[in-house]
Amino acid sequence: MVSIQNLSVEFSAKSLFDNINYVINRKDKIALVGKNGAGKSTMLKIIAGLQQPTSGCVAIPQEVTIGYLPQQMEINDTLTVTQEVRKAFSHIDEMKQKLDSINDQLATRTDYESAGYHDLIDRLSWLTERLAMEESDNSEAEMEKTLIGLGFSRNDFDRPTAEFSGGWRMRIELAKILLKRPDVLLLDEPTNHLDIESIQWLEQFLTTKANAVVLVSHDKAFIDNITNRTIEISLGKIYDYSVNYSKYLILRQERLEQQMRAYQNQQKQIQDTEEFIERFRYKATKSVQVQSRIKQLAKIERIEVDEIDTSHLNLKFPPAPRSGDYPVIADNVGKRYGDHQVFDHATFTIKRGEKVAFVGKNGEGKSTMVKCIMNEIDHTGTLKTGHNVKIGYFAQNQAQMLDGELTVFDTIDHVAVGDIRTKIRDILGAFMFGGEASDKKVKVLSGGEKTRLAMIRLLLEPVNLLILDEPTNHLDIKTKDILKQAIKDFNGTVIVVSHDRDFLDGLVEKVYEFSGGKVRECLGGIYEFLEKKKLDSLAQLELSKSPTVSSKSPSEKNKESNTAPQPDKAPRLSYAQQKERDKIVKRAQKKVADAEAEIARIEEEIAQVEATLASGQFCNDTIELHTSLKKKLDNAMSVWELECMNLEELNSEPGTNNQ
Predict the structure, then answer these.
(1) How far is the C-alpha of 637 from the C-alpha of 465, rounded, in Å?
(2) Predicted local confidence at residue 440, as pLDDT
(3) What is the pLDDT of residues 68-118, one digit of tens each?
(4) What stretch of H or E contains 232?
(5) Which of 69, 132, 295, 565 is deepest in the core (most CB within 10 A)?
């Protein structure tokens, strides 16, 4: 559908892409991965037509539509939310105009056998079918469902967009792009401005309703749940795998190991051949063999080992000075802005050494509570920080607060004091700002590089309470894993505000949910919390949010159906609607089957490990593996239950072919 041909890009004589080729097919869900600065965002801009390559091209058929959501955008508008989002349907009017134009041309042409006439007929058929599908949808209902899925309430619909923060306005742009249903959807870090509930809704949408998707995201769980293909950009080359991200990591490691073995075997063969030639070069009796070996050596096609990007972040927080037993004690804490009560009667205690997460929808008060702890804003109730508590704080907008005109070195030099100033170069090198990179101006850095630079501030003095507000935004997956391990190894107390499920998994042992003006404590990790809340279920999410969808039990529905007047039959679906619904049901059936297969696979692994445990020939790693597999099985069972719920709901809808 979209063909990238011999693509090369150079910046300041440095090659970003070198002769890249690949194709985006109609139903591909592609994860574009690579370290920060590898060129992922540049690749999306080139496909979207916003940037030109140095050489090569992107071939896009005329009828193929592209939707692009960048990481950052300038938004200037004066409309309400619904007025702005309705712009998404302007393409229907454009299609009608094109259809009228083609009909006018066909009415005046008489070259019925020409290729041009047949092309017009083909475009007429395509536009007619596309328009029928577009108009068969209830645009107002779709718009409402999309906005609610992305976290808006009905009270927000008539509010001017200017009243919303930049993150919420990005959601409005995302809603517009999703409603246009483009043939190819290009999304650059779409989860940066979304909370967990909205991320899960977006997952479901992209899986069931989107066409081709090319996705840049550092949320491992998000891309794993959506994608079926992974394209890695590394050192100017691409590596294309027809699997999701987790399986790609395994295949990539296998490829590198096989390549290295083949390279080593070939090097030994070459060495043996060269030794034979050198040994018998001047012996007349061996001249024929020597010449044969020389020809053999010349014909060998040399195996090259792919250059591996070995640059990595060396991150370790300084040892935490000992604090009191309870670094944070909140008793009936409340915060109000005018008539809006953000939260009230928040009561909790965080013990020394605990690692906890603040989660909830945007606007429910997570960052506000952090500011209360930091004593940046006033509040009601009592909020105490314990004895000798020293706080290290990473704010959500920390990277944007950096002075763009300063160099990387000067940014740190201005805040460093004492002996640490003599180690600035070493610290910058550990954060991949070594050599010339330390002399770059901040304004030319990528989002991930700015986040790394802002993170250095936390290392300039020892702290025992880390408060991290969305620390993973703009960080690549590799850097996120390093940050996660550094937080695990940190011996102080940690509060993390994050929507990244994979980042929080295995990191926090307690979750505080901010919802409906209350703060609730949930013991256990993030997936235990999600299982209790059932947030993974799209049906559950819609039931909890949308009054237009019934939340009554099946028995209550049956009682109503016996007393309510019944129509003669359910409204018939159009051909396009029925076709689309059948596809959705088949996808849901496949997900249930895949979930069952995954459960069977994990149960088999558990059986093997338990056999080892029963034999008595095991080590600590075996016990840890058994615990890990049990947790995986619990998660897999939860996924299976949710997919079954989704399939049952689809099968219960009128017009579904239950075959």
Answers:
(1) 36
(2) 85
(3) 988 776 666 678 888 888 888 877 777 888 888 888 888 888 888 888 888
(4) strand 229-234
(5) 69
CB-based contacts of 300, cutoff 8 Å, min separation 6:
266, 269, 270
Q: For residues 659 and 597, give the distance between their C-alpha atoms in angstroms, rounded to a whole number.
A: 21
In angstroms, the Cα distances linking 368 to 341, 375, 473 are 11, 10, 19
* Residue partners of 456: CB distance under 8 A and separation at least 6: 412, 427, 428, 431
Q: What is the DSSP letter of 211?
A: S
- For the beta sheet containing 14-24, the strands, ordered from the edge strand earlier in sequence to the opposite edge, are 14-24, 2-11, 55-59
DSSP for 519-530 reads EEEEES-HHHHH
Nearest alpha carbon to residue 647 among 655, 638, 656, 636: 656
The pairing of strands 14-24 and 2-11 is antiparallel
Q: What contacts 581, CB < 8 A, 6 or more positions away? A: 573, 650, 653, 655, 656
Higher model confidence: residue 74 or residue 350?
A: 350
Contact 492, 463 (CB under 8 A): yes
| Residue at 20: amino acid letter | I
Largest CA distance in the chain: 107
Query: What backbone torsions phi and psi does residue 40 show, to the nearest 5 degrees?
Result: -65, -50
As a whole number of angstroms, the distance between CA 2 and CA 4 comes to: 7
Q: With bands split at pLDDT 50, 70 and 90, how would you rate the model's confidence at 568?
A: very low
* DSSP summary character for residue 75: -
Helix (H, G, I), strand (E, B) or coil at 328: strand
Helices (H), 109-165: 115-136, 139-149
- As beta bridge partners, residue 527 has none
* 69-to-31, 74, 175, 509, 645 alpha-carbon distances in Å: 15, 12, 10, 35, 31
Beta carbons of 61 and 137 less than 8 angstroms apart = no
Q: What is the mean pLDDT of residues 347-353?
A: 92
- Determine which helix (DSSP H) or strand (DSSP E) holds 81, and give its type and residue range: helix 81-85
Average pLDDT score, the chain = 80
Is pLDDT larger for residue 222 or for residue 537? Answer: 222
- 388 φ, ψ to 5°? 60, 30
pLDDT of residue 373: 92
Q: Do 4 and 56 contact (CB within 8 A), yes or no?
A: yes
Q: Tens of pLDDT along 255-287?
A: 778 878 888 888 888 888 888 888 888 887 778
Helix (H) or strand (E) holding 558: helix 554-563
Q: What is the pTM of this model?
A: 0.59
Amino acid (one-letter) located at 204 = Q
Segments of 399-445 assigned E as strands? none
Q: What are 653's two structure tokens?
A: 């809808």
Q: How far apart are CA 266 and CA 276, in angstroms?
A: 15
Number of CB atoms found within 10 A of residue 487's CB: 20
* Position with higher pLDDT, 512 vs 13: 512
Beta strands in 25-93, from DSSP E residues, in sequence order? 29-33, 55-59, 66-69
Q: What's the rounded Cα separation, in Å, for the pair 629 and 421?
A: 47
